[in-house]
Amino acid sequence: MAETLAIRNLHARIAEREILKGVNLTLRKGEVHALMGPNGAGKSTLAYVLMGHPAYEVTEGEVIFKGQNILDLAPEERAHLGLFLAFQYPVAVPGVTLANFLRAAINAKRKAQNPDDPGISLIDFQRLLLDKMRLLGLNPEFAGRYLNDGFSGGEKKRAEVLQMALLEPEFAILDETDSGLDIDALRIVAQGINALRGSERGFLIITHYKRILDYIRSDVVHVLVDGRIVESGGPELADRLEAEGYRRWLEPVA
Ligand code: ADP
Ligand code: MG
Fold first, then answer.
1. If you measure from the C-alpha of residue 39 to the centroid of ligand 1, how many angstroms do you get, rounded to a whole number?
2. Which ligand is nearest to the CA of 179?
3. Whose CA is closest to atom 14 on ligand 1?
4. Which ligand lies nearest the alpha carbon of 86?
5. For an engineered disulfide with 21, which of 90, 110, 142, 227 has Cβ 3.0 to 4.6 Å away?
6. pLDDT tens string 59-97
7. Which residue's C-alpha comes closest to atom 21 of ligand 1?
8. How many A from CA of 110 to the centre of ligand 2?
9. d(CA 180, CA 194)
10. Is 90 exceeded by the pLDDT of residue 187?
11. Which tens digits make up the pLDDT trace of 225-250?
12. Which residues line ligand 1 (CB under 6 A)?
């Protein structure tokens, strides 16, 4: 049986307000799941809770991965266990290049797995970095930029996908956010996910619009409305949502 990341009856709140009201969702390795839903449904909240953002209080439920409840772990411990959560490092760090940051991220993961690991050599890292940048169609000069310093929304996404390619997570959770990525950025993200998908990895792609799903074929689509999954289905569900919107869940039936 494929390894799973199982979200069970997850309740979470921010500023005294309950946002997630019992989310149940099981991701499997080898599958791409899409999570869609109207604005304010709690999609980003779910991403933040999974990454361990301190502002969100989990009041009930669990998230089981490799036999443990990851909600008990610090964000970096979740990452070292094999989860990749976008937004982990959203801050700008002038003076630290993307390449330096990525090398540090790889070494932190290796050290967590084996305290005696001396880290990746500069030569090996540069080879790996160039390899992955080629795979993703990124300009090698991009790695020399200071981390997130003046990055556009699209560049932040590119950096995120590159980080994902280097860390080779078992499950990756990506929030497209509602910032409105341009079509090129969207393609880079989609190309990266498509290049990295396979039996050893599972994805949860969080998105408000179907757009990105035109580039990434998802195996399962879930709809989140008012903090709960209200429907799950195949890729055709995304087409239906595109055509019909979320009205049928938002308005009482006459
Ligand atoms: P989505 O990503 O589906 O659009 P979010 O998870 O961003 O939804 O937001 C869910 C709800 O949580 C929204 O009603 C939003 O106003 C509320 N919310 C998010 N962050 C905060 C906060 N810091 N304080 C209070 N309410 C918040
Ligand atoms: Mg959001």
1. 9
2. 2
3. 40
4. 2
5. 227
6. 999 999 999 999 999 988 998 899 998 754 556 677 889
7. 14
8. 32
9. 20
10. no
11. 999 999 999 999 999 998 998 988 88
12. 14-15, 17, 19, 37, 39-45
- What DSSP string runs through the chain? ---EEEEEEEEEEETTEEEEEEEEEEEETT-EEEEE--TTSSHHHHHHHHHT-TT-EEEEEEEEETTEEGGGS-HHHHHHHTEEETTSS-S-EEEEEHHHHHHHHHHHHHHHH-TT-----HHHHHHHHHHHHHHHT--GGGGGSEETTT--HHHHHHHHHHHHHHH--SEEEEE--SS---HHHHHHHHHHHHHH-BTTBEEEEE-SSSGGGGTS--SEEEEEETTEEEEEE-THHHHHHHHHTTHHHHS---
Atom of ligand 1 nearest to the CA of 47: 6
Q: Which two tokens stand for residue 181?
A: 């990525």
pLDDT band at 103 (very low <50, low <70, confident <90, very high): very high
What are 252's two structure tokens?
């009482």
Closest to 102 in 3D by CA, of 115, 84, 81, 77: 84
Give 199: exposed, middle or buried? Use CB within 10 Å, 0-12, 13-18, 19+: exposed
pTM beyond 0.85: yes
pLDDT of residue 178: 56
Which domains does the chain carry? 4-250 (3.40.50.300)
Distance CA 20, CA 192 (A): 29
pLDDT digits (tens, 9 = 90+) for 190-237: 888 899 999 899 999 998 888 888 899 999 999 999 999 999 999 999
Dihedrals phi, psi of 227, to nearest 5 degrees: 80, 10
- The CB-side HSE value for 33 (13 A sphere, CA atoms) comes to 22
